[in-house]
Amino acid sequence: MQLPVPGRHLPALPLSSTAEPDFELAKRHLPILMLDTAEPFAPLVAGYAVYREKAKSRSSKFRLYPRAAAIIEYALWYDWDIQHLYDLEHVWVHIDDTGQVVTVEASRHGARLPMRRPDQTLPVEGQRPLLYVEPGKHAHWADPAEMKRDAGVLVEAMCSAFAGDQGIHLSNRFSQQGQICASLFENRLARLKLKRLAFKPSWNFNNSLDAQPALQLVPWEILEDWIPQRFEALVSELPGTVPHLAAVFLDCGDTLVDERTEVKRPGTDIVITGDLIPGANAMISELKAAGHRLCLVADGPRETFENLLQLHDLWTSFDAHIISGDIGELKPSPKMFQAACAAMGLHENDRDRTVMVGNNLERDIVGANRFGLISIFLAWSTRRSHKPRLRDERPRLTIRQITELPGLLERIELSLPNSAVQGGRT
């Protein structure tokens, strides 16, 4: 047997089949899941386990107490929830000695709840539970009207404004055991992917999972072994499929450091101390937490920037430092930007997904525009002109406070074309 993996270029994961007697029992009572017609994600695999006496669940946090002869536990794997990568939902079917369903329970946002229709009947069709899946979030309900009434506003918000907020789900049994992990960069890409998939539920549940043959039924132990591999494959695909910025180039004077507060070593051009502009430290922390790669591109002696940035514990926040004192030319010289791209491992086709942020139209913005970067003008300081004289001095985008930058970068990434993934993790 082979379970699916994402992406046509990734190999399938071979998993051995099983002929254990509980397979037919699990197949007989496999839940019928009704999906919203706008639902972007369907479950791929149902991992089953059967309990005939009270026990700790093998795949969830709950203790199980059979109401009759046995409980069939179904762990339903989705690659994605609309708010995060990784989703494992559950359905528990209690059956008696004759094989009749006597109780149905299902997961809903971390809880295990009994499933009953408004008339208190069991949601069963034949011998199979029939459940409605919350759009995007995959919590279970016995009645779609009740779902929309009680959770509709919240669900619609999670599927739209709050899509992707959690990035990669790393509070689960596999992460706790050290079997799965992800970087800050990968977490950002997961968030961007899901924000691009934001949708409005139709609240029409005519789309039964039975019409989708991709769902496979396997013993829980097989699914348990496969999930970390699936997770790794999903994460590894992100850089090559999700449009994202390759790097962020930042100036220093009046972009990070307030030039009015700079103190130079007497008789030299070397700055020995200076204050950050309001919000600069928090902005850098936010960009690093989002996994952005930062490059300092600044004019002046190297010692100036070592003094200033080390003073504020920001020097090591940058992946590279391109300084005119080392290069021998000032911005807008293309040599500055060529050196920055080389230091960051960027190629020519990465330029249109790289930003340059600075306060100087004649140096930062002209240089970025001529080199093919996305130019962002920080109009915080009044020490230099805010009015472009030449076409090349017109910035692509403008912000007035440096704290606006993280939000702007996300909007840029969400507007990038699907082709903006060259080079993967650069």
Describe this structure in words.
- It is a single chain.
- With 426 residues, the protein is α/β, with parallel strands linked by helices.
- It folds into 2 domains: 2-241, no CATH class; 247-415, 3-Layer(aba) Sandwich (Rossmann fold), CATH 3.40.50.
- The chain has helices at 22-28, 144-159, 173-176, 184-196, 220-241, 280-289, 302-311, 324-327, 334-344, 361-371, 405-415, and strands spanning 2-3, 13-14, 32-35, 45-51, 55-56, 63-64, 70-81, 84-95, 101-108, 111-114, 124-125, 128-133, 140-141, 167-168, 207-208, 216-219, 247-250, 263-264, 271-273, 294-298, 320-323, 354-358, 374-378, 397-399.
- The strands form 6 sheets. Strands 4, 7, 8, 9, 10, 14 and 16 form a 7-stranded mixed sheet that branches. The protein has a 6-stranded parallel sheet with strand order 21-20-17-22-23-24.
- α4 crosses α5 (220-241).
- It is elongated.
- Its cofactor is Mg(2+).
- GO terms for molecular function: hydrolase activity.
- This is HAD family hydrolase.
- It comes from Peteryoungia desertarenae.
- InterPro entries: HAD-like_hydrolase, HAD-like_sf, HAD-SF_hydro_IA, HAD_sf.
